[in-house]
Amino acid sequence: MRVVSGIQPSGPTHLGNYLGAIEQFLDLQTAAAEALYFIADLHALTTVHDGQRLHAASLSLAADLVALGLDPERVALFRQSDIPEVPALAWLLATVTPVGLLERGHAYKDKLARGLSGSAGLLTYPVLMAADILLYDADAVPVGADQQQHLEIAREIGTKLNRKLGALLVKPPRALVKPAVAIVPGLDGTKMSKSYGNTLDLFADEAELRRRIMGIQTDSTPVEAPKPLGSPLLALLELLSSPEEAEEHRRSWSAGGVGYAAYKHRLADRLVERFSAARAQRRRLSERPELLESSLRRGAERARAIAREVWGRVSTAAGIGSPPAFG
Ligand code: ADP
Ligand code: TRP
Predict the structure, then answer these.
(1) Residue whose CB lies within 8 A of the most ligand 2 atoms, among 8, 89, 177, for a mutation test
(2) 141 DSSP β-pair partners
(3) What residues contact 304, with CB distance under 8 A and at least 6 apart?
(4) 131 with 89: CB under 8 angstroms?
(5) CA 231 to CA 135: how far, in whole Å?
(6) Which of 46, 50, 89, 300 counts the most CB atoms within 10 A of its CB?
(7) Strand order in the sheet with 34-39
(8) Sequential DSSP letters for 227-282
(9) Cα gap 153→137, rounded to integer Å
(10) 38: CA distance to ligand 2 center in Å?
(11) Pocket test for ligand 2, best of 125, 129, 174 (most atoms within 8 A of CB)
(12) What does the DSSP 8-state code read for residue 173?
């Protein structure tokens, strides 16, 4: 089985990225799978317009992934922008994509509602993502539940391309989503996302993490009273607890007797404990950026060998001649 997935280097790696996507990446690298994971820097261009910052963020995301346990010897870890066939395929896919399909995208509508600029890049984001997904003949794409609609759009675009060109040129893969995790809530209760300023960043300074957790909005329910359901505090604590502990948290939450501050301290402790080894490894890696750069280069060579083959097949069928000569 071959899997492919990407994460945007648009901000620090957070708990939602880890539980929704990265944990699956780690599970799949030990299963009998060929895995391709990339830093989606072309996608990050829709929100980051500062070259130095984007370059640093890409390297930082690579360090985060390796510190969390991704092994660049076993998987191909690379920058999306090192594969010139990605934007080439995205253009071809754009020519078969109905604008209405993109206008119905949840992520697009959410971002507009939050005041992000409605650039053509934001609208066509799922087309670029379809190119990432279709370029490697992958069987499956491990992602968080928030990306399921993008996966459906990618499958639909792939099917349209095959139909228009009259051959099975690209293979639409399926989404792999961990149902127990679904969508990790942010500190404000909406989806945790780098775009929404509501994240728990895995590699933030410990004091900063504790400060953010203590700042989660709670109401004035007294310590001894049952707490109202629907708080991100309980949801986050459950996600970081063993099943038995989670059960106990749910019980005391509904029974009363434990104050919000105590839950917040527990959440902070769990988070720091769970990622302490990765945080130490991350500090060591940040002293060796040249090692990460060489892993990314090797990863790109491996991914590109597949990309060339698929793009060669598709571009020939489209009648646009040879694959890109650059790169
Ligand atoms: P962000 O939304 O913070 O910009 P990305 O879009 O780069 O994060 O997402 C990278 C991966 O992390 C995707 O597979 C996505 O589904 C997953 N992910 C992001 N946020 C969450 C969340 N809150 N819950 C579950 N998975 C998430
Ligand atoms: N759009 C994804 C996100 O925001 C990141 C991404 C880009 C991706 N290309 C991809 C994920 C291809 C899976 C497959 O989370």
Answers:
(1) 8
(2) 175
(3) 82, 83, 85, 327
(4) yes
(5) 41
(6) 89
(7) 76-79, 34-39, 2-7, 140-142, 174-176
(8) PPS--HHHHHHHHTS-HHHHHHHHHHHHH--S-HHHHHHHHHHHHHHHTHHHHHHH
(9) 17
(10) 9
(11) 129
(12) P
CA distance 316 to 114: 41
Q: Give the model's pLDDT for residue 211.
A: 97
Closest-CA residue, ligand 2 atom 8, reads 6
As for ligand 2, residues whose beta carbon falls within 6 Å of it are 5-8, 40, 43, 129, 132-133, 141, 143, 147, 150
CA of 267 to the centre of ligand 2 (A): 28
Q: From first to last of the 327 residues of the chain, give the pLDDT tens digit.
A: 999 999 999 999 999 999 999 999 999 998 767 999 999 999 999 989 999 999 999 999 999 999 999 999 999 999 999 999 999 999 999 999 999 999 999 889 988 888 877 899 999 999 999 999 999 999 999 999 999 999 999 999 999 999 999 999 999 999 999 988 879 999 999 999 988 899 999 999 999 999 999 999 999 999 999 999 999 999 999 999 999 999 999 999 999 999 999 999 999 999 999 999 999 999 999 999 999 999 999 999 999 999 999 999 999 999 997 655 555
Collapse the DSSP code of 10 into the 3-class scheme (helix H, G, I; strand E, B; otherwise coil) and give the result.
coil
